Amino acid sequence: MAEKIDRHILKNGMAIIGEPMESVQSVAFGFMLPAGAARLPAGCCGAANIIEDWVFRGAADMDSRTLGDKFDSLGLHRISSVGTSHLTFGSALQAENLDDALDLYTAVILQPQLKDELFEPARQLAVDGLLSLDDDPRHKVMLKLKEQFYGEPLGRSTEGEKEQLQSLTAEKTKQIIRDNFNIPRTIFAIAGKYDFDAVCKKLEQFFGNMPNLEQANIEYRESNIDYTHIENKGEQVHIGIMTATAKPQDDDYYDARMAVSVLSGGMSARLFTEVREKRGLCYAIGANYHGLKQAAGIICYAGTIPQTAQTTLDVIIEQFENLSKEITEEEIERAKTGLKSALILSSESSSSRAGQIAGDYYLLGRVRSLDEIKQKIDQTSVESVTQYLKNNPFKHYTVVTIGPKRVNWLNS
Amino acid sequence: MEFKKKILDNGLTIIGEVNKSAKSAAVGFFVRTGSRDETAQISGVSHFLEHMLFKGTEKLDPLQVNQAFDKTGAQFNAFTSEENTVYYAAVLPEYLAEVTNLWIELMRPALRDEDFNMEKNVIKEEIAMYKDMPHFDVLDKGRSLYFDNHPCGQSVLGSVESIDALTAQQMREYFNNRYAPNNMVLAFVGNFDWENVCALAEKSCRSWQAQPVERKTQPFGGSKKTERITKQNLACEHICLVSPGVSMQDERRFAASMLAAIIGDDNGSRFFWELVDNALAETASMQCEAMDGTGAFYSYIRCTADNSEKVLGIVRSIFENLYQKGVTEQELQKARNKILSALVIKNELPMGRLVSLGFNWIYLQEYQAVNDDVQNIKSVTLDDVNNLIKQMNPGNFTKLSLTPAL
After folding, report:
1. Stretch 130-159 of chain A: residues touching chain B, C-beta under 8 Å
2. Which pLDDT belongs to residue A222?
3. How far is A353 from chain B, CA to nearest CA, in Å?
4. Cβ of B267 and A268 within 8 Å?
5. Which of A278, B70, B195, B260 has the fewest CB atoms nearer than 10 Å to its CB?
6. Residues 322 through 341 of chain B touching chain A, CB cutoff 8 Å
7. What sign results for the dihedral spanned by CA atoms B391, B394, B396, B399?
8. What is the number of CB-based contacts under 8 A between chain A and chain B?
9. What is the pLDDT of residues B166-203, one digit of tens each?
10. What pLDDT is recorded for position A23?
11. Residue A411's pLDDT is what?
């Protein structure tokens, strides 16, 4: 049965999209505000992390404690995230509490108190979060990799930069909120059990008259950094590798996705087989598709002891270089089944589905049905994936390592 | 939802919860074995064995196993804890029989020397990986310190030394002793046909031989030791506090989960308002872990080394205040709502449901519908939680911290 997509655009342009799910008692929603890391003014990297915390420290006539207690009394599972393009506030909850939850989020977004005395703890938590990243080299290597691959501003760290966080003031941060909480360019996505008319009515009432703000689009400037090493006296060398591929809105997107699956879609895919199963070089090894509106890449991670870091990198690069060679019908069949199954399995979760439809709407301006995606996957073939890889050979790899030993890579 | 159960003559228990409106189904083998069932000589064998099950049978080599799973589009994996090894897969209903057959085959593995030797490298890489994750490492070390000589303190991963010393023959013996059908549960949830999966399991598993399997489950109150380990290459202080909790067999486990949420939920808890909201700690959480015959509360706190003394002082005062005054009705209500919505959301996915169903059977040999769990949470009273605080006294903790070298 084809799923239904609800869609309503408020008169100022704010988009409301939804997918009702009959088999669940929960609902999940998110407000995607165009205030992600790449949209912030230069020198303010990390401001979105402060904002993500500060706006919850009191809204409308509720002080921080009262607001927190109200959130808790609804049993909300709050999901806030700072992304490249958007700052997202949302929750997963039992459907009967949706109306009250929307009231609270409306207050947080439109009437945050932003008390000066509560700025400092919000900033301090962002600084401490950054510090703790040093104790999580696996996460840090991926952030650094995106930074090097996408360049400025698209690759900006979603965790912030210490000096820039420290130089931010309450006043400057308030200005960033005023400039970037741009309601007409906000996407509201909801999935699960809800009454779409009631949701639209409520959002129209509170958000429908908010004016549009001038906001520049995010520009992409290609980065050509080859290799970055961060010294760390840990046990492993954490290796991140990224190379360009088709964007979600490109015609050959599905061939690109299939290529990533042949490379690393499952335990029988090439990376896992060659790096872990045949050579025992790593425990954690894998590559994923990472798509933004302006650019996209295949992002790969491997963690290995220093003695085997170079071999691991070499074997991985060899798999990328050989990817277009001898793709078999079986590989394509497994990749198709894997991608389609993952799609359907994730569609059972209201949170996943809300995130997926929001992402689609931002990237493509519409929501793809599951049937459409399945059809596009089915249309790919050994020939189309091979042709895609031959027409788009991997020209450049960005490599980042964190660990006790460097690897040899091009300019290093 | 319909619950089904069948016990084969050899003791293998098959259970299922049928939900015809689900888009997927999940299957899992729950084996009642983990690091607490190991001796020091074979430390890490349960987890290593879990890896080795993916290496195939007399008929299937490792690549064929991986291809067979990927052919079904399954989301599959396995995990090993102190007391269970669980193998699971979520699939579209049309692939359930195929993936179930595969798991059944893999439960009688070849355990070849060459695969064992290659996988040793992977296991040692996994040990190295977790050493680079202090938030994990501190909990592992904290658990060991708390449980002292009790088997529950034994490391799931083992050490590089114990893995190096382990032989394939020792693993085969361990396998023969622990993977007996009477020590395993095969569980299904979601959209599937009970008669079909049952017939399939019966046909393939009935030749497995039952045998006596034991576990010692003595209760334990914790070592109450304190240890602060200075570590090079660390940016933050990572603190783990462990105090006595309740077992999976204990009716107070629902009150225990409420207490953990009141003290250490991510938002709105005592830890949150007194440590995180004012930025003294970047994160502070508490969980209760109910185990077989014992249990513990685990707190994890991450802060700057400069703040650690102050943070611990506040934690002690939070526990002292709880011991003296108990929790409030409002706190109980908030915790109840949070746990109930988490329960509903988790159980909407066959994978989430599979784990609850399997563990309820492994520990209690009983079926709990989601609504039973909802009722159990709803029926916890203020007195239940406050009595638990008096009985367990979370202030009476074992403490392990990792601190950056100056």
Report:
1. 131-132, 134-138
2. 85
3. 13
4. no
5. B195
6. 330, 333-334, 336-341
7. positive
8. 196
9. 999 999 999 999 999 999 999 999 999 999 999 999 99
10. 85
11. 57
Q: Does the beta-carbon distance from A73 to B337 stay under 8 Å?
A: yes
pLDDT at B392: 96
Full domain range(s) for residue A364: 227-403
Same domain, A247 and A301: yes
CA–CA separation, B290 vs A407, rounded Å?
45
Interface check for B235 against chain A (CB to CB < 8 A): the answer is yes
Cβ(B106)–Cβ(B129) below 8 Å: no
Question: Residues B119, B121, B123, CA angle at the centre, nearest 5°?
Answer: 70
Chain A residues 167-196 with a CB less than 8 Å from chain B? none
Per DSSP, the three-state class of B54 is coil
Q: Which residue of A has its CA nearest to B301?
A: A132
Say if residue A98 is in the same domain as residue A189. Answer: yes
User: Is residue A241 over pLDDT 70?
Assistant: yes
Is residue A299 a part of any domain in this protein?
Answer: yes
In a domain, residue A213? The reply is no
Q: Do A287 and A333 belong together in one domain? A: yes
Instruction: Select the residue of B128, B234, B330 nearest A305 (Cβ to Cβ).
Output: B128
Quote the number of domains for chain A. Answer: 2
| Residue A96 lies inside a defined structural domain of this protein | yes
**Nearest-CA neighbor of B385 among B273, B256, B216?**
B256
Average pLDDT over residues B53-67: 97
Q: Which of B345, B374, B401, B403 to mutate to test the interface with A (most CBs of A within 10 A)?
A: B345
**What pLDDT, on the 0 to 100 scale, is given for residue A276?**
97
Residues 348 to 367 of A: which have CB under 8 A from any B CB? 348-351
pLDDT, average across residues B213-226: 91
pLDDT (0 to 100) of residue A2:
59
* Domain co-membership, A34 together with A126: yes
pLDDT given for residue A183 in this prediction? 98
Specify whether A241 is located in the same domain as A146: no
Rounded to whole angstroms, how far apart are CA atoms A238 and A142? Answer: 9
Q: Other CB atoms closer than 10 Å to residue B10's CB: what's the count?
A: 16
Name the residue of chain A whose CA is nearest to B136's CA.
Answer: A136
Whether residue A250 is found in the same domain as residue A196: no
CB atoms within 10 A of CB A372: 12
Position B286 scores a pLDDT of 98
Reported as a single tens digit per residue, the pLDDT across B113-134 is 999 999 999 999 999 999 999 9
Order of strands, sheet of B13-18, starting from the edge strand that comes earlier in the sequence: B2-7, B13-18, B184-190, B25-31, B85-91, B75-80
